[in-house]
Amino acid sequence: MIARAALLAVNVDAIREFDFEGKAAVSAIWKSPVAGCVAARGVNLAGDDQADRVAHGGPDKAVYAYAIEDLRWWEEELGRPLECGELGENLTTEGIDVNGALVGERWQIGTAVLEVSEPRIPCWRLGVRMDDRRFPRRFSQAGRPGAYLRIAVEGGLGAGDEIRVIERPDHDLTVGDVFRIYSRDRDEASRPLSVSGMSSSWRRSAGDRAEKSARRPEPATPGCC
After folding, report:
1. Yes or no: is domain 6-170 CATH 2.115.10.20?
2. Cα 40 → chain centroid
3. Alpha carbon distance, N-terminus to C-terminus of the chain
4. Is the distance from CB of 49 to CB of 13 less than 8 angstroms?
5. Which one, of 67, 182, 73, 177, lies nearest residue 122 by Cα?
6. pTM confidence score
7. Contact 104, 195 (CB under 8 A)
8. Structural element, H or E, at residue 225
9. What's the CA gap between 206 and 208, in Å, rounded?
């Protein structure tokens, strides 16, 4: 019997102020689970917010999903338990390969339909949340970025809802691939340009990287003077 994919938790947080290296800063990364049906509408979940919507919000990054399987992997790495929402995710999932989701893939959860858009690129706020300024680098090196989602159809979702993949585009580019290309394999920088579901910001970034890669001089032949 194939286990169904499910939503384990919906996690939200309001913007709060905190001290960072002697200066006032703001974030909504301290997300925690909420009960009941939560509305997904516009560029957010009800009760949730992002302090920096250029980096962490907007239509292409309305909702962030992370798998419980990856949280458990981090528990082994860190040697301590992690709560749902502790990595700043809105949706803690089970039974679905979040990093292997195709860009443009659509999930139905409750009455909402969400579309996979791009991987998360960690910033310094994740280091603050984990009380480890080196954690963003560890997160990147682990290659388990999770996925940002657009709200394609507004609706309600809640813990316990089934996650159904209702549409898969005709390409093989996953959010994990995009993250890998961004982080390491920059010779593939032009690959995301062929995928219509990529956000405009990622398309610009991929175009810039592909152009820089094309301008690089060819390596010298071994033994050539």
Report:
1. no
2. 17
3. 63
4. yes
5. 182
6. 0.90
7. yes
8. none
9. 5
